Amino acid sequence: MQLSGGFGVGPIEKIFHGILSVERPIQLVTITGRNEKLKDQLSKIKPPPRHKVKVMGFTKEIDEMMQAADLVVTKPGGLTTSEVLARGAVMVIVNPIPGQESRNSDYLLESGAAIKANNIATLSFKLNAFLQDPARMEVLRANVRKIGKPRAAFDVVEKPLELLKR
Length: 166
Description:
166 residues; alpha/beta; Rossmann fold; three-stranded parallel beta sheet; 8 helices
């Protein structure tokens, strides 16, 4: 899965081409947010026959899409990072912006819950190597499960309710 945020900005087309260069057959869902022009552009690109590709615009089904994803290629924004971890997917980090995204990136990498392509030119190489190593994928997934908080929203509500009962 490739995410481009709600507004579909950034080097999304270059990332898309990088993912399409992966040698191993993949199923790719790219979500362009509200950027209809980008959706149309990417939809016109003919993927290699080994891949199954779907380009979508804005959707309210991100949760379901992430549940089905093994990998999510995206920037590590706060909400995206939380959602990916809650759903147990491994994040492939590209282009984190300084500040919160850099710190999220550091945390995910130090926790062994993500891989990072330092630039788009290396994305295909990193994905190829990663996809050919199922044992490494399982290690990262286990680490995602350790740090993910799929019940965070419930916990935030339940704790104060417990305190009120006392």
